[in-house]
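Q: I'm writing up a methods section and want to include an example of the input and output format. Could you take the sequence below and give the corresponding predicted C-alpha cells, formatted cleanly so I can copy it straight into the document?
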Amino acid sequence: MSITDQESAAREAAPGGSATPDAAPAQELVADVFARDCSSRAAFEVVTSKWASLALLALGEGGYRFNALRRRVEGVSEKMLSQTLQALERDGMVTREVVTTIPPRVEYALTPLGEGVAERLRSLADLLEANVTEAARESARESAGESAAT
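A: Here is the clean output for your methods example:
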C-alpha cells in the first residue's frame, strides 16, 4: 500500500470521512519509519537513494521527458533511472503521463507529495552546496597543517 493509499484510507476511517456510517471502525493506521514493515520506511529508503533524490530535485525544477531527465541527472543509467522513476511513481511522488503525439512521448512530474519531498531535499542540497567551499577550505587547512608539521 502506497503512502497516498494509506492517507486515503486514514481519511475514510476518520470521523466525518467518506466511510459508510454502519461500517465497523477501521483500525487506526500508525506510520513509523523505524518499523521494519511500515510502507513509510520503504518510501524513505527509495527517496534517500542517490538517484531518487537527484531525480526528485530535478523534477522540482519542473516536468521532464525521460531523456532530458537522464541528461539532467548526470551519471544515471537508463535502466537505473527507469527503475527509480517506477519506484517513485509507486510511492505516489511522481506522475507519468503519456502524451499521444507522433512520436508519443512520456513526461514525468511531481505529485503534491513529491513536491513536498523535493522542497525538503532542495533545502538539504542548498545547505550542502553552500558549505562545500567551507569543507574544501577546512580540508586544505588540514592538508597544509600536515605539510607544515613534516
